Structure formats: C-alpha cells, structure tokens
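Fold this sequence, please.
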Amino acid sequence: QVQLVESGGSLVQTGGSLKLSCVASGNSISIYVMGWYRQAPGKQRELVADITSSGSTNYADSVKGRFTISRDNAKKSVYLQMNSLKPEDTAVYYCNAINVLVPTIKYWGQGTQVTVSS
C-alpha cells in the first residue's frame, strides 16, 4: 500500500513558477513509476509528466521545456517544478504511482489546486 499526499498548489500569475511535492507513505516507491496528472474543469485527467525509478522522464508536449519532474526515492518523494506558467495550466494536479511489476496496482493522491491568473 502507498498513500500519496500532494502539496504546493497555489494561485500564481502568468509567467510565474510553482513547485509541487508529493510524499508517499507506506511501502517504498522504488518499484513505482511516479507521475503527475492534471484535470481542468470539464476536461479529462491527463498525464503531465512521469519518471521511472532510474530517472527516465516523459512529458506532455504542452509542458515540455517548462516543467521538470524529479524524484527522491530515499525521501519517497516526487516533485514537479513548473515554470513559465500559463492560464491553461490551471487544474487540479494529482500525484500517481504505478507498480512496474503489476501495472494494475495504481495509487492516487487527493490533488492540489494550481490556478494561473492572466
């Protein structure tokens, strides 16, 4: 079992920066692909970025060059540094963990609100 708790969401102006954090409790996250997803009002949840235990990353085209995902397995944490924020980045951001050995095992955090004002 893994419990995920996000933090760092806030209201920020266009062009600003935020860093989201996700801390896991329970089992080690070393066997999990960790990811950040987001869901804007009226839209489906979408992948923002994910990172494997070895550090390989994957980004949505819409955030490439602006967002950076990182993880610290020892601290059971994953981070999302968001720069050059745009109003279209406004959404609830969710932390996600997928077990690489049994991909049907997935965990979600409760979400943290990011609002970018124009």
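The chain is about 0% helix and 55% strand. The CA atoms of residues 71 and 78 lie 4 Å apart.
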